[in-house]
## 1
Amino acid sequence: MAEFSITIKGLSVRKSELSASDAELLDRAEKATLNAYAPYSQFNVGAALRLETDEIIIGSNQENVAYPSGLCAERVALFAASTLHPQMVVKTMAITARTTKFELTDPLAPCGGCRQVIMEYQRKQQQPIRMLLAGKGDIVWIFEDASMLLPFGFEADYLKGD
Ligand code: THU
């Protein structure tokens, strides 16, 4: 028997320590929460992508009375960006949320399905996607590579059989 472990590296920074570019991206994600359609959860998620071209694409969660028909903010942003710019390279993705139900202080991480989708585009572009995760509090978590959020993800190589 052999034990193994993995290391997840991230940075915890204050909002005031963010670069102007990252602060702007987080601001766009915060504003995107206002566009969420979340009448069932009242949990508004906002995502903002900074592309290599510096263009920012936003997404917000869109719910449906038939629950699985809705979509998370992260996927709305990524699918919109890839539709508009099929050859896009995403440099950084910021994610935040707001809810009227309680104070959402801590940074929040994307759901498993969204992590898999983020990793799909990271693999496609062969460049890491930086992740900025924030709540209403002062702390932002930064991951320089989205793979930090999905250890043991389903890999494209699995389909090749080697
Ligand atoms: N949601 C997101 O938009 N992103 C995530 O990563 C997890 C959850 C949305 C889905 C649903 O509309 C609401 O948040 C509550 O789960």
## 2
Amino acid sequence: MEKLNRGADWIHLDVMDGTLVPNISFGFSVIDAVSKVAARPMDAHLMVVHPERWFERLAADGVSYVSFHLEAALRSTSSHIDAIHGLGMKAGVAINPDVPVRRLFPYIGKADFFLIMSVFAGFGGQKFIYESLDRIAELKAEILSRGAEALIEVDGGVGSGNAASLKEAGADVLVAGSAVFKSPDAVAAMQALREA
Ligand code: ZN
């Protein structure tokens, strides 16, 4: 945690339920523990069905950014965004690589950020999917054409080899897991991604 507090801008927390995605990561006990030592804004990525069950507790833990999957929200996407805003947090909508980017367009101007998965949600260490660059560029163009403000976050297989291309395509927030935690110098790895 000390390294994340020094090197990261946000602390990204992957929450998996074993239902929307096959793996289970961690629950509230870990988020409670992280919240006590985090010196950077926490960004919770809910890879769960019924993400709304998490919102209040995340707010109570001081989480700043919450994203949930469009695939898990169906027709509740707008009400989820409103609920997150009502708790004083920033709302993000996430999609897996097989969901067309245009399905996010109705939420431009409403969501604070969009999370484009550049691997399939649920497993660490997967290879980056290169078509993600086109998906980011497509979303960025739509956001700009509407004069809206929304950050684009990219999650999955991000590292020094693609950080510059991702930023060029329009990514604002890069989520790194293996690239940082498997590096001998995590703080330097985070700085290298920032400067790519
Ligand atoms: Zn994530």
